[in-house]
Amino acid sequence: MQVQSMFFKESASKKLNDAVLQKAMKKAKSKFVDGRAASVATIDNWEDIRTHAAALRDRVIANLDAYLIEFEKNAIRRGSVVHWAETAEEANAIIVEIARKNAVKTVTKSKSMVSEEISLNDALEAAGVKVLETDLGEYILQLAKEPPSHIVAPAVHKSKEQVAALFVAHHHKPLLTDISAMTREAREELRAHFLAADMGISGANFVIAETGTTLTVTNEGNADMVTTIPRIHCVITGIEKVIPTLEDFATLIRLLPRSAIGQSIANYLTLTTGVKQANEQEGPEQMHIVLVDAGRTKLLGDDMQSMLRCIRCGACMNHCPVYQNVGGHAYGWVYPGPMGSVLTPTYVGIENAGDLPNAATFCGECQVVCPVKIPLPDLMRKLREKQFDLHLRPFSERFAIQVWAFFVKRPVLYSFASRMGARLAAWMGGREKLIHKLPGIDGWTDGRDMPAPEGKTFKELYRKKYASRKTNP
Ligand code: SF4
């Protein structure tokens, strides 16, 4: 997927004026936020599980090579072929080659964010392979020719009416208004494709080292159809998805659906271990597992390493006031919200990430809800520092920070300048006590007035209050 993150500000402004999007985001917010809160409240030791999961993910990251090799050994033992892709191009080339060698003409696919990262569908289509997305949200977006706007609910930005119109245009059937009927119609459309596909491609939420198993968590059952019906099954996943044991999965699955959409357990947990055996009725004749790096190893030993803990639940974006208002497309790449503000600069280059590290209010809610305790605000702060050091921020911003740094290192001068600033701001507010325009930081006052301060610094106000307490105990 082409990176458009440098246009975040312009794109966010447009999204704020998109009435359909605003309605959809409002609906999604209450579903995700309230759903998670209610679900988490039913677990007494939620914080202990988070702590345990964060430590587990850290242990995996510290020993990533060993767990990946163990996974490879056990996957091969069960008849899978394991491929290693250092770059997006390599991953695409591997999968296109598998398709070419096996004369694959049609592919059914379940949701995979890694495949979005590497633009796998485009690579397969260019090689003459027809790809059909089978996750309902992804299917809708494939019809609409749009990228996902959320990692768990890809079509969350679409209204029911927009989906109904898409179905009429593509299915050539009467207009439906009931969501269940629309879902049934999509299932009917997809069924024949499930049965006829030459190859199934799935992502993996986790891969398990001790058994060589790949694991997919879904709510629609489409991953089961994709992984078992076609003669070839290809799994594409990031190298950080490995976990040591099935027992570790039992820990993580307590966190994942609850954090994602407030579900105690997902509808389908699909565990796939190798190819169809002689005594089995179902399963693929070939199973290929493509382990993708595409920038992940760059995070090892880096300030951003803790980001590799991510289990892609989406809770950070669901609770982010910026995401809640602008939706996922504004972020300009595969991963939106706070996790995207960290992953995009690290995967595609900080110079291509534009304002993403600044696309946060730093309320800290993302860190509070992250099931694996990733310190997202800290990571974004570090990325801001990097952008500053690399001169990637506008001159006016860097100059302002340098001026501020000059004063803050000289307390007497700083105190004097803040007193003058507070008085000036009070004067600018006039009788209305409202500042209509702040030169240099117009972004704050373009859409609203700023209440003028009292004309005193915090220290002055504090001293006044403290003195009055002393005289009136
Ligand atoms: S950063 Fe945390 S909250 Fe966000 S998607 Fe990853 S695991 Fe979930």
Summarize this structure as a short list of keywords or feature phrases.
3 domains, binds iron/sulfur cluster, Rossmann fold, 12 strands, 473 residues, alpha/beta
Quote the distance from N terminus to C terminus. 65 Å
Mean pLDDT: 95
Per the CATH scheme, the topology name of the largest domain is Rossmann fold
CATH structural class of the largest domain: Alpha Beta
What compounds are bound to the protein?
A: iron/sulfur cluster
Structural account:
It contains 21 helices and twelve strands. With 473 residues, the chain is α/β, with parallel strands linked by helices. It folds into three domains: 1-42 and 314-393, no CATH class; 48-297, NagB/RpiA/CoA transferase-like (Rossmann fold), CATH 3.40.50.10420; 396-471, no CATH class. The strands form three sheets. It has a six-stranded parallel beta sheet, with helices on both faces. Strands 8-5-6-9 form a four-stranded mixed beta sheet. A hairpin with a 4-residue loop joins strand 5 and strand 6. Helix 2 packs across helix 12, helix 9 (160-171) packs across helix 10 and helix 15 runs parallel beside helix 17. The protein is elongated and about 90 Å long. The model has no long low-confidence stretch (mean pLDDT 95). The structure holds iron/sulfur cluster. Iron/sulfur cluster binds at residues 259, 310-316, 339, 370-372, 374.
